[in-house]
Amino acid sequence: MDGNDETERAATIGMIAETMRSTVTVARALVDAGVKIDLAGLEREIGDLCADAIALPRVLGRELIGPLTSLRDEIAALERTLMDAPPAD
């Protein structure tokens, strides 16, 4: 794979991370509103995203620190929200 392909792949991974962060933000808002959510598959998708990021050359991977950190922080916020939510019926 040449440098241009890897740069494009890094940009795609960054966009996917941002999209996933937005999805997790919406999920957190739904939980706050008392809506039951289904997170099936999210862990696998995030695992795949991280594996793709790790496979990048180090210099390109470092460029993803911001988007991946934002995703991690939003997942942590969702986890706190889920822990504080009343039990499902």
Q: How are the SSEs ordered, and which strands pair?
A:
Elements: H1 3-32, H2 42-54, H3 58-62, H4 65-84
Helix pairs in contact: 1-2, 1-4
Question: What is the gist of this entry?
Answer:
The chain has 89 residues and is mostly helical. Helix content is 76%, strand content 0%.
Q: Can you walk through the features of this model?
A:
The protein has 89 residues and is mostly helical. Helix content is 76%, strand content 0%. It contains four helices and no strands. Helix 1 runs antiparallel to helix 2 (42-54) and helix 1 (3-32) runs parallel beside helix 4 (65-84). The longest helix has 30 residues, at 3-32.
Determine the strand fraction and express it as a percent band: under 5%
Helix content: over 70%
In whole angstroms, the N-to-C terminal distance is 51 Å
**Structural category:** mainly alpha
Q: What is Rg?
A: 15 Å
Instruction: Please outline the major beta sheet.
Output: none
Total strand segments: 0
Helix and strand sequence: HHHH
- Summed over residues and divided by their number, the pLDDT gives a mean of 92
Total of helices: 4
Low-confidence stretches: none
**Overall spatial form:** elongated
